[in-house]
Each structure stands twice: as structure tokens, then as C-alpha cells.
């Protein structure tokens, strides 16, 4: 019982140490990464963020198709 | 026996009620509640060998495949921009995992209470409730303590639904109004390349530092890579929709099927429910206190409320942070900033699960 | 042997022809026909151990999982408002099940014919054709008489497609024009709460009265609860689309794979086809006669045509009722009223299947 | 053979009795249910029926979101 | 050992890089690359008995089910109009399969090289790379030489992605500019009935002439029948979307999991990569030469470039043909005509796989 | 080794013969088929091809959106 409690305390110490170590290393790596691959000009951003949520991109494409189609129709 | 079954059917009905009426994590608690009812209908035998729930459990839960597929979908649905734009948030996602390990000690300590008895494996499986992440909890308890799976999953999802009730008092207790009013700086924009490299980097780190976390973290990273790569939209959509929806139904049913009277109606379940609440409270407090510490040490101001989002419970905890921030200052929108520790917390608890698997499993 | 295979390939081609050209239940009969062709190609071995059709059968049919998943999808696609708005319609859904039990006697009586020989299990599996519900028939025969599965499924789906041919003469024979002109009162609107509680109530009743019907009824109720709860739209859509579509392809192929020459080209199949037709005729007649009786006893007028919809065959039978009603009076729209006994018939035959499983299985 | 026929007849009697019993009880319960949870005012009905055809609900939601967004934008 | 794993992780990363950056068959190479990384993480054990990748491989690859399901989806996505409107194109789809059988001889001849050693089964599995069709290659090597599956799949998909690099020089070498400028006559329109009967006709021919090709050809035909029948759009969509997307993720992961250091880092892999390139070159040349011969013999002019599309690699090879045609004459649009030999090549290599299964398996 | 090479050459001969035989027979059958089931009036064709390939309809919508978008961009 007491030995199990000791095991548990050891687990906690190793566990929190590992979690912190892992996420601290990750913090460093990510800082490096974002510095080495910085976000460029703003026009590049627009299509990308759309690309991330594919359904909305889809909707947008269709919506724009419809819009353009109507426009072209009215202009004819 | 019959009375136990009746009581378990009532438990199932309660879960369904909470899911529908109070929107308590309905995607999981509705199938879990239904599975609990089905498994407790006498003579129906749906969880006996040859029954449908038996097959689903054997195929998806005892192999660990279903929670891993959910993680694939979660990865494909998660946008890590918020934490990439402010990597310090990872530290909050780490701090909140203290809830897990403190609860592990608590579970062992409960063995002093007469009638309570948890092995180290069981204690670890219970502790992971503090990770506030359903699939992680199901995966770990399927590997370490399948006999407690039902109770652990119910506790995990219930407390995740109760995050708006559990967290605010702790957040307010540990912070001053001035702290809650702190405004965060604008998040740095993140390049597409960084977003693509991030899941691969996480995978490599996992391989180097904690290989036993590979299944969970790997599936999360695969899902996120499908999403961010931009070249496999079909697969990303499949992971976010077809796979996660279908697996959620089956996972819920199979977890519910573990809620038999003998395995749920005992003093251990009381212990699990108690420990789960403790885990959420300690995790929240640890996150907030770490944020306060960082606020002292860092040159950029950090709103301590953000620490509470580190327990994960995506996206509920981030919304709670936002609401508390607005309560302190109606112009203080913290939602996007809180998504950082929030998704960091998902990674944090997957890492914690890997540690427990390595040392206890 | 070769000739038998050739003949079975012709049978498969016929089923595909009927599916495409005459739209005979194409969702099922096309894959069944294709499966029949595949399984009868000599040396291809697709249904032998290690072949794809073998795996699909073992995983989905002999476990009973595929028909249950179809039931999940059917539940998610079914709107029970029509029968909730006029609960007397349940009685028509009960009466039409007389087709099942009368056919059971008929199958046993056929044993007097030299060369015919049906066990009680086989007779029960054949009789369920009268339930006019594909997944119920496949589920029951996979449990009671897998050797007849192919013929029973083919008969069930074929007669369901033939409902517009089989039912009208019986309906006209048993009713006067005046009866067919009877207009129904407006259906009562049904509250959302009632719709949510209905599947749970059915499940509880099943648990109390007929636990062996739990798998079928339970999956139907789960699907319906996903639909009506309004909080798990993702899961409801998955059940109605992804799950049911994918399972339909595999179910059809695996059922078709049971159409081997030895199991289909025999006198038993003739008996099954004969008994199936009898079952539909008797079920229809029983439904219509019960509706006439209710019309006499009840204070609200009931159009006897509605009884024919009680065999289920959703939504074909309801459409037939509507058409016959319009033929008698061009202003008499019965479609919505006929959906009541129609969906009641699905429940009725699932209950009947539960009884047969309990007493014969 | 005759005994099997007897079995079949017994099955029919028990079977039809059970089916009727089950569905009659259900009829009663449903009557009770619809009386205890009656349909309320009509405005509540609209969103519910939309909820039944989820895709159209989706479309409607998006459409209304767009509409609201535009309105709010124009008013500012 | 550790070094081998590290190298294999680098191979996986390279595949992911090619998939994302250069769009090398990303739908397959991204999951394959990720699977390669996962399987080579020491101590993670994802491909060991009980690991997720192990289960996926056992369920989907060693049974042959996943490639067959991909073929179902491919059939549902393929429009055979182009080849039905000009059936001579089937001959080009046949000629290009010479790449397969020439490579078979090459693989055996490589046994003279010290350290290289291929059995006839392995040679056949390698040769099918020349079919330029991923699922066919995976299916055949899962049946004949599972130990080479990873390398064969990687080679097949890599060379398919490299078709725009490999084919043009050969096409230009073997044709004159005048030949490349040849315009094709308008394709004949094809009736709906012909499109529906085509997959059934192919299936019957397969049953008569080459039953061992039934699984592959049968699934392709079923998918195409679902598509063209027009009565089962739900199922056709399920085959084209849900099924193929979900299976692609799992297939890729499980194939990648075969890329362990011991099975990939050896001289055999070098031989496979070399032979794969040879197969593509010979197949392309055979197609072009056959088209030149047909141009001489036939009264209708045939652009010899079309022969290159006979290797399949749908739709990349057809696009290459179109591009080369436009380079010779900016008015010469060959895309629709090239789709003919392109889809004929899919059938051709499935037939070739059937032959190899019959004679070598 | 030489015997394996012989096997391989035999395989090649049988293989190519079978492939050609199969596809030549298919060529003949398809010619027969298209002659026996010729394409009729053109109006029937439009809706069918659209209904059969849902993705291509999708693609077409998107393609047209892109095309319109580019056009509008260049014209501006
Ligand atoms: Na967490
Ligand atoms: Na029925
Ligand atoms: Na090919």
C-alpha cells in the first residue's frame, strides 16, 4: 500500500517531468520552425485559409460560380 | 441482478436525457446511454458472445482501433495555428496535466478507504480522466483496465460536459479581476509550411522521446497532416466525416455495453466519479497557476485564465475562458488565444497516456 | 454442375435486368444479382474460403451485423409522425403480420407434397417473407436457416417490388367502392418530445415483452433516436448515408453469393417462391379485413385500403394505397395516412421475428 | 408431420397474440404519450421539420448566417 | 538495425515530401510514407501483433479485400465511353501490357547478377508494376509475394507519378512530328444501353476466358455497373467516395507498414526500382509501336502517341499524350481519344494479373 | 535458372497471347454491342451524363467558377 503510493509519487514526478520536457522541447522546435518558415505576403494567406476548411472553400467556389454565372448572363 | 439491470437501464436513460436535454456531449453520451440500455436488457444477449455489441467491442475497443480512428479524425479537424502562433501556450498544456498525475496518487490513496481497492493499472486509467479527452481515456483504459472502461468513459465525458460548471469558480478563486482583464497580443500568423511540418515534427519528437505514445500521437499527426498538406482533401474529409462519425456511433455503443450492473454498481464507480472531479479541478488549478507564473516571468502579458484551457476539453474549456474574460472586460476576446493551450492540452494528455502506458502497462 | 452454374448466372442477370429495367428494388437486387454471377463463375472461387465474398458473408451476414446496421439506417430515415398522429394504425401493422404466421403453417403443410421438406426453422425463415421487410428477412434466415438465405432474400425483395401488382386486386376484391372513397381525418400534429420518447418507449416495451426482438427493434430505435433527438445530426446522417449505403453494397453481394446452384436450383426454392407470394396475399388481405372491422367499430371512419399498407414494404405499399384511393375518388389523398400502418408494419414484423427467434431459434 | 403442423398452429396463435398484444400496448402508450406531450404553438414546428432534412437545414443555416452577417455589416 | 530504421523513416519522409511538394500521387504516397515512418519507430510496435497497422494489414491486405474495394471505386469513377466509341483502342491497351511480361523475363534474368535472387512468384509480382495500376499491383503482390509488397507499391506509385517525365522522350523517339500531328476522328457517341451492358459483357468474357481475373475485373465491373445503371446512385456515390476514400487511407498505411528496414533496405529493392522503370519504358514503347502498326493497317488514321496511354496510369498518361499532341500541333486535342487506351489499359493489366495468378500463383 | 528463364519466356508468350485474345474478342463484342445499341437522339444524352458522374458535375461547377474568376480578374 505504502509502496504503491511511493510508486504513484515516482510516476507523478517522472510523468510531469516528461510531459514538461516534451512540450518545452516542442515549444523550442515550434519557435524555430515558425522563424524558419515565416508567413509571407498577405495575398498568399487568403487561399490557404480557405483551403483549410474544405467545405467552406467548396461552398465559396460554388457560390462564386453561381454569382459569376448570373453576372455573365445578365451582361449578355 | 434484475434490480441491478433495471438501475443500469435508468443510468442509460439518464445519460440520454442529459445528452438530449442538456446537450451533455451528445455525440458520445447518447450512444453510450443507448448501449447501456441494450446491454442490460435481460435475455437479449446483445453483449454476449455472438451478439452485435460483443463483436463491436472486440473489433474496435479491445484492439484499440476505434479510439485511434477518432484521434485521426480529431487531428484532421484541429487547426493548430493558435498554438503555433504563440508556442508558449504549450507550457500551459503541460501544466494542466498535473491533474492526471495528482489523481493517480489520489486513486492509490483511496485504497485506505475500506472497500475501495485500485491497482496501479486501474489508478492510471482513472487518472487519465484528468486529461479531459475522451478517446485518450478510452484508449488507455482499454489497454490498462478494461474492467473500468465504462465508468471511466462516462466520467470523462460527463465532466467534459460539466466544464462550464466546474472551471469558473476555480478560475475566479485563483485570479484577481485585474489579471482576468489582461489583454493578449495579436497571434502571429503562421505559414502553410509551418503548419505542414508541425505534425511531422511532433511525430519525430514522440518517436525520440516517448515511443509508447506513438499510436495516439501518430494518428493525431496523420489526421492533421492530411488536413494541412492541402493535396489530399478527399482523405482529410473522409477522416473528418465518414470515419469519425461512423466510429463514434460504434464506439459509443461498445462503451455503453460495458456498463453492466456488476461492473458499474459498486463502490469503485463512486471512487472514479469522485477522482474524475478532483482531476478536473486540479488540472484547471495547475493550468491557471502556471499561467500566473508565466505572466510574472514573461515580458509579454499572459492572461492567467488561459491556463484553464490547458486541460483540453476542446472547445468547451476555451469557450469558458472566453466567457470569463468577457465577464471581466467586455472587450477582452480570449477565444482564439485559448485555443492554443486547448489543443496543446490534447497533445499533453496523449503524451501523459504514453508515459502511463510505458511505466504501468 | 456447369449447367447449374450457367443457369444461376442467368438468374443473376435476370435480377440485374429487373433492377435496372423495371426498377425492382434496384438497391438490393442489383448487388444480389451481381453477387450471384460472381459466385457461380467456375474457378473464380470468390465465395470459397479466402475469397472476398466469403469474408463479407462471414463478417456481416453470419454474425447478423449487416441487417442490423441496415435497420439502424432505416430507423434514422423513418419518420414515425404518421403513426404517432393516429396510433390506431398500429393495429393494422399488427393484423398484416398474419401473413407471416399463416405462411408458417403453409410451409409445414407443404411437407405433404412429395420432395418438399421444411424443418420448423426453415418454415419460420420462409414465413418472414410475409413481413415484407428485407433486412428482417435476411436477419432471421441468417439465424434460423442460412441454407435458404439466398432464395428467401430474392423472394422477399422481388415480391416487395411486385407489391403494385400483387396488392391492388386483393384490395379491390375485399372492399366496395364506397369504402375506398372514405376520406380520413387530418392527422394530429406530433410534438418533438413525443417523437423523441417514442423510440425509447418501443425499446422498453420490447425489453419487457419480447427481449429476443431487441437486436432488430433496438437498432431501429437507436437510428430513430439519432434522427429525432436533434442533437447528433452528424451521427444521424452517417446512419442514413455512409453506413446504410456501404452496408447495402456488401449485404447485397454476400446474399447474392448464397445463390449457388446447389442451394437454389431445387424444389425448395419453388416452395419458397410460392409461399412468399401467398404470404404477401394473406398479409394484405388480413390488413384490409382488419381495417374494415375497425371501420365498423371505431367512431372515426377508416379507409379499409389503409390495411394493405400494414405489410410494410415501405414506401411502396403506402403508394399503392394512395393510388387506389385516388382511383376511387380523385380528391382522396391517402399517402400520409398510409405511412402510418406502413411504418407500423416494420415494427410489427420485427416483433414477429423476435417471436420466431424465441420459440423456434 | 402432424405434430409439426400442431407446432405451427400453436406458433401462429402465440405469435399473432403477442404481435397484437405488443402493438395494442404500444397504441395505448403512444396515445398517452401524445396526450402528455402535445404539439404546442405552430412556430415551434417549423425549425423541427427542418431538422429532419439535415442538409437543407445546413443550407438554411448557412444562408441565414450569410444574411445576418451582411445585415450586421450594412447596419454598422 | 537502428540505422536501418532511421533510413526508412527518411524514406517515409521523402515519400511525404514528394506527395506534398511535387504532388506525386499524394492520395497514396502520403499515407504510405506516414505508414513507413510509424512502422519504423522503435518500441512503438504499431505493426507488431496487436498493433493497429498489423490489424489493418491482416484485415485488408492479406485478404486482398482493400485493393478489390479500390477497384470497385475505380469502376464507379471510370467512364468507358471513350473506348466504347472507338473499340480499336482496346488493342493499344493490350499492347502496352508487353511491359509487364518483358519485365518478368528481365526479373528472372537479373538472377544472374550476384546477390539478386527472385523466384517466379516474385518476378511476376514485380512485373505487374508495368501495368501502371496501383491496386492491381498491390493485389497481385499480396497474393504472390507479400514480402515485396512495400517496395512494389512504392515503385508502382512513384513511376505513375513520373509518367510525365518517363514517357515523353520515348514517345518522341519513336514517332515523327508528322505522326504526332495526326488528328483523330470524332468519337462515336455511345448509348446508355451499351454503357450498361459493357461491364456485364466484360464480366462474362472474364468468366469464360480467364476466371482467375474475376475478383479484380468483377469488382471493376460492379463499380461501373453501379455507375452506369442509373438506378443506384446512392451506391455509386458510396463506392466513389466513402468506400474509396476510407480504404485509401487504410491501404496506404498498411502498405507503408510493410516498408521495414529488413524488407526494403536490400539489393532486391534496387532491382525492383530498376525493373519498374524498365517496365514503364517497354510498356510505353510497345503501345506506341502498336499504334504505328495500326495506323499503317487501319483506314482511319491513328495518332501513335495514343499508344503510350495504353499503360493506364489513369489519367496521367492520357494527359501526357494530350500535351505531346498539342506540342506537335496546337490544334490537336487528343485527351478524350487518349482516355480510350487509358481505361483499356486498366482492363488489360487486370487481365494480365489474372494470367499471372493462374500460371504462377 | 535457365529453366526459370524458359518458364518466363513461356509465360510471356501465353500471357501476351491471352491479353491480346481477350481484348480482341472484347473489341469485337463492343463493336457488335455499339452497333446493336446505337446512341439515339441527342436530347436524351444531356441529363444522363450529368446524373451519372456527380463528381464531374461538381468539378464542372468549380472549373467554371475558376474560369469565370480568372476571366473577371484579367478583365479588371
Ligand atoms: Na488534455
Ligand atoms: Na412488415
Ligand atoms: Na495497365
UniProtKB/TrEMBL annotation, chains A, D, F:
Catalytic activity annotation: oxaloacetate + 2 Na(+)(in) + H(+) = pyruvate + 2 Na(+)(out) + CO2
Its localization reads:
Cell membrane
Q: Does the keyword Ion transport apply?
A: yes
- Gene Ontology BP, a term: sodium ion export across plasma membrane
- What does UniProt give as GO cellular component? plasma membrane
Residue stretches spanning the membrane: 12-33
UniProt topology in membrane: Single-pass membrane protein
What are its cofactors?
Answer: Na(+)
As recorded in UniProt, its EC number(s) are 7.2.4.2
From the UniProt record, which GO molecular function terms apply?
A: decarboxylation-driven active transmembrane transporter activity; sodium ion transmembrane transporter activity
| Major localization listed first in the record, in broad terms | membrane
Q: Which family does it belong to?
A: Belongs to the OadG family.
Q: Which NCBIfam families match?
A: oadG_fam (TIGR01195)
Briefly state the protein's biological role: Catalyzes the decarboxylation of oxaloacetate coupled to Na(+) translocation.
In Swiss-Prot or TrEMBL terms, this protein is called Oxaloacetate decarboxylase gamma chain
Which organism's genome codes for this protein? Aliidiomarina soli
From TrEMBL, chains B, C, E:
Give the E.C. number(s): 7.2.4.2
Pfam families, from UniProt?
Answer: OAD_beta
A single Gene Ontology CC annotation of this entry is: plasma membrane
Keywords from the named record = Cell membrane, Ion transport, Membrane, Sodium, Sodium transport, Translocase, Transmembrane, Transmembrane helix, Transport
Cofactor(s) recorded in Swiss-Prot or TrEMBL: Na(+)
UniProt subcellular location:
Cell membrane
User: Mind telling me which InterPro entries this protein's record contains?
Assistant: OadB_MmdB (IPR005661)
Tell me the protein family, please.
Belongs to the GcdB/MmdB/OadB family.
Instruction: Report the function annotation for this chain.
Output: Catalyzes the decarboxylation of oxaloacetate coupled to Na(+) translocation.
What's the protein called, per UniProt? Answer: Oxaloacetate decarboxylase beta chain
Native organism: Aliidiomarina soli
Give the lineage: Bacteria, Pseudomonadati, Pseudomonadota, Gammaproteobacteria, Alteromonadales
